[in-house]
Every structure is written in C-alpha cells, then in structure tokens.
Design goal:
By secondary structure, this protein is an all-alpha fold. The protein has a single domain, classed as Vanadium-containing Chloroperoxidase, domain 1, CATH 1.20.144.10. 75% of the residues lie in helices and 0% in strands. It is globular and about 50 Å long.
C-alpha cells in the first residue's frame, strides 16, 4: 500500500512542477493555445479536411485518422464513467486553474487521446510530417496538466489510448 501512496505523491509533485507556472502570462497564453489542438473542433476539423482531400493517399490517411478518433472516444467515455477521478483542482488545494474549469471526470485525458489518435497515423504514413506534429501532440498533453485539468497519469493513459487507436486504424485500413 505504501508504494501506491509514493506513486501518488510523485504524481502530485510532477503535477505541481508543471502547474505552478500558471501565473506566468506567456506560458498561460502558450498552453491555452495548444490545449485547443486536442479539442473536438480541431481534431474533427483537421480529420475532415484530410478525409475530404482529393488526393487518394490523403483520403486513406483521413479514413485512418477518422477511425482512430472515433475508436478512441469509446474507451475514454467508458473509463471516465468507471473511474470517476476528480480533477486536480478539486482535490489539490494549491492548483492554479482558469475561471471556468471542466467539471466532468479527469481520467483519462480526452484531449490528449484525441490528438494522439489523429497524429499517430500521420507519424506512421508520413514520418517527416509526423515528426513536426508529434511535439504538438505532446504540448497538448502538457497543457492539460499546466492548466490544472489533469494529472500526469491521465495524460499518459491518453497518450497510450490515442496511440493504440492510431496504430490499429493503420493496420486495419
């Protein structure tokens, strides 16, 4: 049991290490910008643009991205219901958070899952472009911690779910 407490303390320490910079205006603007790259409007919009492309290769990539995004949504929704973890700002008193924080459950990070689900097929099919997009995906994950909305493990599981959904979509389509 002590090991679990130690892991939670480590996670809280890592969370605070990232979140305590919230008051710095430049960082705040930077991460508010990047967090939206994992949101529904952005991920669905980018996927539709690629899917509707007239290039056959891009169309297949768009199908892979769409399948991965759709497939990744179900486990996130189920896990949020089965593991109703409160968001860090509701549990950790020194969390810095915006005026209108999210109120649903924290685990796993849906934004992180979504961005990794659409970036992973790009990384596999177009490695040079993927190399440019992968840092953006990681910034989305870090932004979720920075903004006080997720624990590091929420983001890590989002990375894993999104990546797996992306890999499976490439293998099947």
């Amino acid at each position: 049991m002590k090991r679990g407490v130690d892991l939670y303390q480590l996670e809280c320490h890592l969370f605070y290490l990232i979140n305590h910079h919230y008051d710095r205006k430049r960082w705040n603007s930077f991460f508010h910008f990047y967090t939206h790259a994992g949101g529904a409007r952005f991920t669905i919009g980018v996927t539709l643009c690629v899917l509707l492309s007239s290039l056959l290769y891009a169309h297949q990539l768009g199908l892979q991205m769409a399948a991965a995004l759709a497939a990744s949504h179900l486990p996130v929704a189920l896990m949020k219901k089965c593991y109703p973890r409160k968001r860090p700002y509701l549990v950790l008193s020194e969390t810095k958070v915006s005026d209108n924080p999210l109120s649903d459950h924290s685990f796993p990070s849906g934004h992180t899952t979504a961005i990794f689900s659409i970036v992973t097929p790009v990384v596999i099919q177009l490695p040079l472009l993927g190399a440019l997009l992968l840092p953006v995906a990681f910034l989305v994950g870090v932004s979720r911690i920075f903004l006080g909305l997720h624990y590091p493990s929420d983001v890590l599981v989002g990375v894993i779910l999104g990546t797996l959904a992306g890999i499976v979509s490439v293998l099947l389509i």
